[in-house]
Design brief:
It is built from eleven helices and nine strands. By secondary structure, it is of the alpha/beta class. Strand 5, helix 6 and strand 6 form a beta-alpha-beta unit. The longest helix has 22 residues.
Length: 308
Amino acid sequence: MPVLNNKDLLGIKELSADEIKHILDTASGFKDVLKRDIKKVPTLRGRTVVNLFFEPSTRTRTSFELAAKRLSTDVINFSVPTSSVVKGETLIDTALTVQALGADFMIVRHSSSGVPHLLAKNLRASVINAGDGTNEHPTQALLDAFTMREKKGRIEGLEVVIVGDIAHSRVAKSNIYCLTKLGAKVRLVGPPTLIPDGIAKLGVDVYYDMDEGLRGADVVMMLRIQMERQGKGFFPSTEEYFGRWGLTSERFALAKKDAIVMHPGPMNRGIEISSDVADGERSVILEQVTNGLAVRMAVLYLLAGVKA
């Protein structure tokens, strides 16, 4: 059985370009499974997946749950409000308890950066990072790369523009690592207050002017403004933000004629992106969601091979 080089998927930063390509190639096979009348294979029958989500999630948690079920695993969704965490039990003790109950995989989302890494050091079970603080969201970057490759036929040489709240976005960080490793040219666009100093060291170009940053783009990825992670004063108002950095059809016309628009969701329509662009014929936002299933199936399958 094909494997990754570790029992865990904690971030894109730790993966090689070959490993990323291996995941994407494997996901292509699983996407074919999702087109069948019976969208299920017995590949991981007898394994157990536990979703440990300490932050709200619709797409990622549901996607992991469906991906696991498509592989015939047993799935448990951990409910934080009804668990012993509210009684003061430590995170590691909670995870060890879940592992003792037979968990083979733990899908972890947490508001603090580094939590999946801490758990991975203390668990035999495979830990998959479903988003940790402002650090990384590796499976989102993988499904984004999968979508780009599917739509554009390649990733190497693509001009990819990532727009918005770069400072607080784990999606942006994982995509920067992923896309630069695969040979894309990445531009970051947003207010100076939302683009970290020194981020150009990661091999990206930085623009503060939206129109300048969009010219000639193959892919435009809009990011959610993360009000819950921000203090005040990053920009005067949401209206002014949309006026300067929101994606409208007029602005999108500055990109290449066959450019695609992406968004990891959830979208704030009229703040980050106009509805006519989000729902337009060059939007692949819903296809990203579909592709997330195939990518997460591939990740579970390949990590299972480490322990096979």
